[in-house]
Amino acid sequence: MIIPFISIVWVGLFVGLTLSHIYQPAGKKAKPAWLTALELPTGALSGTWRELLVISAAGLFLELLMIRWISSEIGIFAYFKNFVLIACFLGFGLGAYLCRQPINLLATLAPMVYFALLIKLPWPALRELVRKITVLLGSTTEVDMWGVPTVPWSWQAIGGLAGALVIVIPMFALLSMGFIPIGQATAKLMEGARDGILGYSVNIAGSFLGILLYTGLCLFYQPPAAWFGVAGLLLILGFRTMRVRLAVVAVTVFAVVLVSLPDSNATVEELMMPELGTAGGHTDWSPYQKLHWAETNYRGETVAYQLMTNDNWYQYVVNLSDSFILSHPGLFGGVAPEWNAYNMPYHFYRNPPAVLVLGSGMGNDVAAALRNGAGRVTAVEIDPMIIQLGKRLHPEHPYQDPRVTIVNDDARSYIQNGTDRFDLITFSLLDSHTTSSHYSNIRIDNYVYTLEALTAAKKLLTQDGVMVVKFQVVKPFIAGRLKSTLTEVFGVEPVQFGVDQSFNVSPGTFFISGNQNRIATAIQEPGLRHHIETHAHVPMVDARITTDNWPFFYQHAPGLPTSVILISLVLAAVCWQLMRRAAVPVREIQWPFFFLGAGFMLMESQIVSRMALLFGTTWLVNAITISGILLLIVGANMLERAGLRVPTPVVYAGLFTTLLVAYIVPVSDLLAESRTVRIAGAIAVLCGPVFFASIVFIRSFAAARFAGTALGSNLFGALVGGLLESLSMWIGLRPLLFLAATLYLMAYLTSRKQAATAPLRSAVPVS
Q: What is the pLDDT of residue 566?
């Protein structure tokens, strides 16, 4: 992989350094004509509200596109999505600072070509290298990443880590540069608006439109080709110069063709037997993740289907019916069907009247419940396309059975808000790595296995019910954490054991809790007792119980993982280098706006993460949350424009009061039975600070005459706020509200200091 490694690094550095020349201060040496070919001529922006609306929509649409697309295709960013978001903010901030320089669309189009080639070029060695980036960057961290082994520190590990960073640095730089022209155009239009407050409101409305467009495409299962098509259309509508439009069309067509190539990134699991093979291969994009499925063949017959999510193996669709097992005795490797992972829960509760399956996937656990005599089954699955694939592909057709009720929802949302009671609750192999919100800054959280979540699930059990937590434990601390949490919830240690892997049935570790009489009676059965005795050795080490305040299930202990620290340093270095090349001195940063941006970013991430507890971590919920925040900002703008007469110190007092309320009030207190009451409570308690923060910002922005430097300072602050949000992995989520309050206090103090020194500066005679 030496040749693709050198190619990625060299091309990335070449493109990045070339584009940086666009923003260097004018010197004696003129820029070459080809470098300025896509520069907008003076007066190219008409300054209309429609233009500002479209360019603002294009900016947020491209931001969401890049966050989701890159996170899906390059594994390490699926775990640390906020770093892609931060790179976008860096680009917007630089663009706002440089709004009085010529706007050059080459800086947006060239990175699009680079990432399209990096992610989709059909070069096997390059594809393998892109997959290895996650392993190289994540293997030395203290976080459990799926498919990434933990290796001790050594010169070889350090060399691999350094190689990954050398690849990632140009990627961050190019990602940031891609947003500079849009930041320039947005700031230029807002700075020249005849009504600054209305202009800022139009900017927010455009961002809202961008969210609606992108979320709509995702909800209708559209692939990246459609995303790039819409992005190109928005750029064409926003920039009217013919040469620029032709270039946008050319790059859009190139990107659409490239991302439409057959998928070659997905990792198909190595099959257990030489007689087995894979065939076909189909890629779909659900609202949450990229799904790739392929057939598994045995002697010319399709016997199973593999499903990969974001290019990593996820699960099989397996046929465990009696007729299939009897007709294929050679497939199961000597493991009796009653001891596989899907049938195991029903040794503890025979013929359960009501079963809840959390994370039902394509239906294997549901089929097992039906085979084992369940009276009714409630199947909860977050991804609607996985449900559709289960209906289409599962040979036992469990989702079509009239005893099954399908619930398309987040598992935590269901158990938190559910009122039904169940005799058997099964936590399937749930995994939050690929279903975290693309709007939030949460990376390795999992609200399904927190103390509060398992306590809520226990309330859904009948008096003699049994809860089964099935997890594919890779790291011993995961087993220790699950044992400790279930012991805390039920007051007694769970029964623990493993199961063997048989034909396409993943191994796993079981934790059995619930009615102790029923569990003890079940274990008296000789076969089950023998299985538990022979599979009882589950490697585990103690680990802190995860809570809703510290939900980082895949992290061994509170602290900042090595990968987070390293990427934060990389981002800081990229930021400093880009600012230096663009001649943006630190002394020009307007600190009140900087602190406002940092505080708002922390506050916003808090809102999104806590909304996930109330309504689930779904695209729709997060789209509604962010849209609600934007509408609150517009509302604050309109009140200020109408002549709101509340003194600024009073507005700050309202901000600090609502932040304190958001800290004190537990999210569980907002779980009203009525969804309408729940939404109203969430807006009042969680989103209340946004209203006051928006008044502070628009009032400060107006006082600064809507200058691009003020907007740029605000976006740089948001970048730093995104980095500070990683502290939640150390101190928890709620303390970030105190940090946000501190940042807003700094904004207030620096604005007072700036106001006090302004008359003194104006009194100094000009020489």
A: 79
Q: Is 641 helix (H, G, I), strand (E, B) or coil?
A: helix
pLDDT in tens, 399-417: 999 999 999 988 888 888 8
Domain edges within the chain: 49-265, 320-429+451-534, 581-753
Amino acid letter, 233? L
- Cβ atoms of 575 and 90 closer than 8 Å: yes
Report residues of the chain scoring pLDDT below 70.
Answer: 26-29, 76, 78-81, 138-153, 264-275, 333-334, 431-445, 503-504, 616-622, 673, 758-767
Contact 715, 63 (CB under 8 A): no
Q: What angle do CA 124, 130, 136 make, to 5 degrees?
A: 130
Q: Each residue of 17-66: pLDDT tens digit?
A: 999 889 877 665 678 888 999 999 888 898 899 999 999 999 999 999 99
Comparing CA positions, the residue from 224, 226, 187, 181 lying closest to residue 203 is: 187
Fill in the DSSP letter of residue 493: P
Tokens of 53: 């609306």
The pTM (predicted TM-score) of the whole model is 0.89
Place of tokens 């155009």: 185
Distance of CA 740 to the CA centre of its chain: 22
Phi/psi of residue 83, nearest 5 degrees: -75, -35
The per-residue pLDDT for 287 is 86
- Rg of the chain on CA atoms, in Å: 27
pLDDT in tens, 150-180: 666 677 777 777 888 888 889 989 999 999 9
Query: In terms of DSSP bridges, do strands 290-298 and 276-285 run parallel, antiparallel, or are they unpaired?
Result: antiparallel
- Measured CA to CA in angstroms, residue 290 lies from 122, 130, 148, 408 at distances of 18, 16, 19, 18
Contact between residue 505 and residue 463 where contact means Cβ atoms under 8 Å apart:
no
Which pLDDT value is given to residue 764? 38
CATH classification code of 320-429+451-534: 3.40.50.150
Overall CATH class of domain 581-753: mainly alpha
Among the listed residues 583, 584, 596, the one whose alpha carbon sits nearest the alpha carbon of residue 697: 596
Q: In what order do the strands lie in the sheet with 312-318?
A: 276-285, 290-298, 301-309, 312-318
Structure tokens at 600: 């708002």
Distance between CA atoms of residues 624 and 296, nearest Å: 40
Q: Enumerate the β-bridge partners of residue 425.
A: 356, 467
Instruction: List, as own/partner pairs, every contact residues 124-129 make where C-beta atoms lie below 8 angstroms and the sequence separation is at least 24, other chains included.
Output: 124/264, 125/1, 125/3, 125/4, 126/4, 126/7, 126/8, 127/264, 127/265, 128/1, 128/4, 129/1, 129/4, 129/5, 129/8
Cα–Cα dist 477/97, whole Å: 47
Q: What is the longest distance spanned by two Cα atoms in the chain?
A: 98
Q: Fill in the DSSP letter of residue 270.
A: P
CA distance 747 to 741: 10
Give yes or no for a contact between 173 and 16, defined as CB atoms under 8 angstroms apart.
yes
In the chain, % of residues over pLDDT 70 = 90
What pLDDT is attached to residue 443? 39
On the question of a common fold for 320-429+451-534 and 581-753, the answer reads no
* 52 CA to centre of own chain: 28
3-class secondary-structure state, position 470: strand
Euclidean distance between CA atoms 630 and 628, whole angstroms:
5
Decide: residue 153, CB within 10 A, 0-12 exposed, 13-18 middle, 19+ buried: exposed
H-helix or E-strand spanning residue 619: helix 619-641
